[in-house]
Amino acid sequence: MPHAPKRCQPVCAPLQSASLLAQQAAVHNRHTLSYLLLTLTALFWSGNYVVARATHAAIAPMTLSFVRWSIALAVLAPFAAGRAWRQRERYRQHGWRILVLAVIGIAGFNSLVYAGLQYTTATNGVLLNSFIPILIVLIGWLFMRQPLGGLQLLGIAASFCGVVLIVSHAELATLLHLSFNHGDMLIFVAVVCWAVYTVLLRGLPADIDRLGLLTLLVAIGWLVLCIPFALELAAGRYTAINLPNTLAFLYVGLFPSVLAYWFYNKGVADVGPARAGTFIHLMPAFGSVLAMLFLGETFHLYHVLGIALIFTGIGLSSRH
After folding, report:
1. N or C: which end of the chain has fewer CB within 10 A?
2. The pTM of the whole model exceeds 0.85
3. Residue 173: how many CB atoms within 10 A of its CB?
4. 3-class secondary-structure state, position 277
5. What is 101-138 written as a DSSP string?
6. Going by C-beta distance under 8 Å and a sequence separation of 6 or more, which residues neighbour residue 282?
7. By the 8 A CB rule, do 220 and 84 touch?
8. What is the CA radius of gyration of the chain?
């Protein structure tokens, strides 16, 4: 007769418990690192607004956008160009979607933000950025037939009121005469572009290499930016090459472009897209503090009320 399998001795239990605890500790450490990287992502993106506002008189907006993505492309290409080339057939299958993503997500969004920051504050810019999650829900409902409940509708209304409060500076006369700040409106259009970009991005297959895709999007967006950059130069808007401007170029080309995207992708892989996406809501806090520290901007009561309404809307729209 075959021998019955031996039962695990009592000494095995502590070993199994220790192994389980070690695995849990490793997961905890990885998640902690991801949360730190996602926090830095929000910080870097907020700094992008502050740097653009701080240099709005010295650096023309199209020049800032063009040089930013030139630096990002130079950094990304050596690492990801091969990946993009190997998946060229997959990209060709979704050519029109990728083209639209590059135009509105790389060229359009950043150029509109930089143009808007010529006329409005960095604080307003990052606060308006918080409206993105609500717009994603609304666009998904209108064009992708995603379900939209009563709480989501209430959330959209609350966030919309928050945005109106911010761009109107809580002045009834501004609302009555529809005299919104030109820069606020440009940034709001940029926010709409990013929301559409996010919705369209969801339609790409999961097996497409994301780093290669990012490099391809940056390359196409860079080519598109050549036109407004050339027109800006033709109009006589030249940017001096000096130390402050060079430091600004290096920051926007490395931190909010390459590092922030890299950190964000790692965070999504470790903790999931839903949890990682919530870190974008740190931008109003970071942006307002950075604007006060480096630009001398004042934080008003309408900013607080606008933040409260936007976050209330986000919370309501995120509930099932």
Report:
1. N
2. no
3. 8
4. helix
5. HIIIIIIIHHHHHHHHTTTS-HHHHHHHHTTHHHHHHH
6. 39, 42, 43, 46
7. no
8. 23
